Amino acid sequence: MSAGSAAARAESGAGDPNQRMVYMLQRAARVSPDGPAITFAGRTRTWAQVADRCARLGAALAGLGVGRGDRVGILAFNSDRYMEVFFGPAWIGAVFVPVNYRLAVPEMVEVVADSTPRVLLADATHVDQAREIAAACPGVAHLVYADDGPAPEGFLEYEALLAAATPGDPVDGNGDDLLVLFYTGGTTGLPKGVMLTNTNLYANAMGGVAGYRYREHAVFIQCGPMFHAAAGSRVYSNTMTCSHTIMLPHFDVETVFRCIQEHRVTVGLFVPTMINMMLHHPRFHDYDLTTLHQINYGAAPMPEALMRLALEMLPGVVFFQAYGMTEASPIVTTMPPEWHATDGPRAEKLSSVGRPAFHCDVRIVDADDNDVAVGEVGEILARGPNIMKGYWNKPELTAQALRGGWYHTGDAGYRDRDGFIFLVDRVKDMIITGGENVYSTEVENVLYRHPAVKECAIIGIPSETWGEAVHAVVVLKDGMTADEAELIKFCRDRIAHYKCPRGVDFRDRPMPLSGVNKILKSALRKPYWTGHRTGIV
Amino acid sequence: MSAGSAAARAESGAGDPNQRMVYMLQRAARVSPDGPAITFAGRTRTWAQVADRCARLGAALAGLGVGRGDRVGILAFNSDRYMEVFFGPAWIGAVFVPVNYRLAVPEMVEVVADSTPRVLLADATHVDQAREIAAACPGVAHLVYADDGPAPEGFLEYEALLAAATPGDPVDGNGDDLLVLFYTGGTTGLPKGVMLTNTNLYANAMGGVAGYRYREHAVFIQCGPMFHAAAGSRVYSNTMTCSHTIMLPHFDVETVFRCIQEHRVTVGLFVPTMINMMLHHPRFHDYDLTTLHQINYGAAPMPEALMRLALEMLPGVVFFQAYGMTEASPIVTTMPPEWHATDGPRAEKLSSVGRPAFHCDVRIVDADDNDVAVGEVGEILARGPNIMKGYWNKPELTAQALRGGWYHTGDAGYRDRDGFIFLVDRVKDMIITGGENVYSTEVENVLYRHPAVKECAIIGIPSETWGEAVHAVVVLKDGMTADEAELIKFCRDRIAHYKCPRGVDFRDRPMPLSGVNKILKSALRKPYWTGHRTGIV
Questions:
Q1: What angle do CA B432, B438, B440 make, to 5 degrees?
Q2: For domain B41-197, which CATH number applies: 3.30.310.50, 3.30.700.20, 3.40.50.12780, 3.40.50.2300?
Q3: What is the pTM of this model?
Q4: What tens digit of pLDDT does each residue of A188-206 get?
Q5: Which backbone phi and psi does B144 adopt, to 5 degrees?
Q6: Using the beta-carbon criterion (under 8 Å), do B384 and A214 form an inter-chain contact?
Q7: How many CB atoms are closer than 10 A to CB B46?
Q8: What does the radius of gyration of chain A's CA atoms come to, in whole angstroms?
Q9: Is B392 in contact with B192 (CB distance < 8 Å)?
Q10: Interface with chain B: mutation pick from A25, A31, A178, A381, highest number of B CBs within 10 Å
Q11: Bridging pattern class, strands A219-222 and A192-197
């Protein structure tokens, strides 16, 4: 920024020019030039090297015609080059778009057609899919091979581009500039591009460093997918703290153990099922995991039995939970270690998602956006500088999601007298029957206790009498039997009658799943609601 | 913000609408409504009460004709009402201007004439000065008495205004909006209004929470002056953490002891001289100070002997140093406890100011703004979202201070191989003699070791031969003697000849001091430079 543009900014009221992620990378390269930034596939690069490579990536993309505000896609497993995409496009004011590799090709095409990147990067595993996408999306002018070895036919070579590029200074910009589009479909249909600005991810990263009581020079093991905001956003907090990332292409228990031992990893981010797999792995005791001192987890609260086991088997580790979503960059609430008690008065908090993070405010409201009382269930709203700018190309959906200046999460929950937030359901999965609210997860939790139930989903179906009726869809365990009357009685013995299913469908094939392996209730509801006027499905 | 204005923002590219301090206060009132926010003069208010009072203050100011962007001044000792001024004007998009009560009235008038507040608040101690200021500044339409008891003649009553006001929602705004003008004169002449935005102070506060590894619900003792950014900015970090501030009107050792014991204070911010006074106070051992577990200090590194004493006498306390200035909101570097060693290899860092804070980048440059090598002295530059928007009404000074997008601190220092920053001098106090740089503090440190020297200042004076010559101004201790030759020889025995004074002036009255009790070298230099062409004085 020149002195002139500083004056111009004071006039224009634009966002802060210094709240930019490329500046954070330049800072790391100055504060810790020779410190390790990333280790992947046996090679390690320092912060000075990563900054140089990101500057070169920016220059190379500019050479391919990528301009300010243009998009750059990436379809790949985690790698060191993937981390560079978190800064390289931003170097020239462009926006990166990570494509979820778990999607089917037609879904990937939807994402690319919506975000229209000029350049698409892919690793060796995803070369064919990238070709199919480019064939379907004529806006993709260049394919770039971001992997080891020679580039396949039709691809430019990432390393050759970097070698030929002349690194320069980051272009002018400000905190309000888009940094990334993270696509999220969740269980609600078409993919939506969540527009996150530099300020959004800055606020989340610094709030995370503060909330997790992070120190400089951590050694962080990255085994979650970089296309997801939870794992991806850690790139930025690790940059702020000049930490060393040990990057895995994806999660694998024994590789995680080996890397923790070899690189003296101090911090990891896992979901509870990963922790479960680690603790129950037969070779758990064969590795030295004693350097690990902090585990962040999210996506689900920690079941009490698992928490107890984890505290016992990893006595030197403190646990932080976070709850959030892509639209919040992603942290909304955090629960620090001192609230991870399995006994005593604090144990009741273990099933909560903690309290609002330092950088985020939370309200719980009714259908008219009025605050509900302590203990009462409502929709969870969030506000803070971490909240997205909106959905790409979807102004109406944006206005709806951000109405009143608050992000409407679609999650139902309540706040207890100490300010802890408890999730109960997705708002869309809540059933209103005879004027009573029924939370599907509560009923499902009961059904799962029946010995014959392998999978189940509770949905609302049309009812002349009740508006909606509670209905169960059940997959039984192999070789086990149970009938409708038995399952309904099983519920009635345990929860209020109005919450119990009035009918049960037995299903002999697996449940329909979303891209992130959640049961697609919208698909289950659909046949019942065809012909009915409703906005629910 | 309405849904419509969210869409408008996406269009306009304005700063983030959620990075606002009033929202942080609303968050604290939701997360910890009944938690204590502030205790002053025997009364305690909760976060919900403080938020309500700030909303009322905003509404009351609007009723006095204060609009978006207008200024509101305050001239007062620290109090609970002073803290409300950190949010009340911002509630309606106005800007507050704390006036340094240590200034002489003509200096206060300069500040008020420059910032043109419509309303000026004052406490009981400063009623007369406020009247004089208002008489000299016709733009001040209202005087408000922000203290206990009935308002004096010509003043509106703060409490009556709040009681009559109807609290509403904060007006629309964004992170780039000005929040405060902190006036700084330092040792460099006319007062400058440092424009700090919401984002500036947000970045500093969250970076401070992260850098100090702060936890929620701290009990913080505030004894530094609120008109200064170091103490004032803590209002915001304490709001983010829902901490409890024990507010003192000003520093007093025994009051500090009593408050720590009574309120179980956990965190304090002091300058080294305050710590020195505390440790040497005869009643140190009469109070229970064991709840104190963190001391932040700044303005000067901790002398080794004092550090050793502090670690010994306060064994449960961790020490964090910070270096900064108003223009950086104010934190630039921090030094965490693990680097406060008085023995072993880490002890050499004790005289440094630490490394760049998580939210701030630092460069050390020569006169042409080129980076110097490790170990080489240059000017310290800083960049980050905490860096001011500029100086109020001073576009040229702003452009000069922020040239190249970096704030030029005017401090000279160097970086060691581990990235620690060491201050050596103010750039303006550096003397260039025969092409060599001489840092005045280095020479002063030698002179101070002479038993007869009570006070000294090293300045550059005009020299035909050398451009500048090193010159000493000395005040001797009562009843002690020393002559020019003796003092020059004393220096020559200890440091390089070119650094030694070529002349000494003995002064029989105290040194001229700035508002913050630094020796005013510009005043000492002035008589020597009169008639010379220079920009130094």
A1: 115
A2: 3.40.50.12780
A3: 0.87
A4: 457 899 999 999 999 999 9
A5: -125, 130
A6: no
A7: 18
A8: 24
A9: yes
A10: A31
A11: unpaired
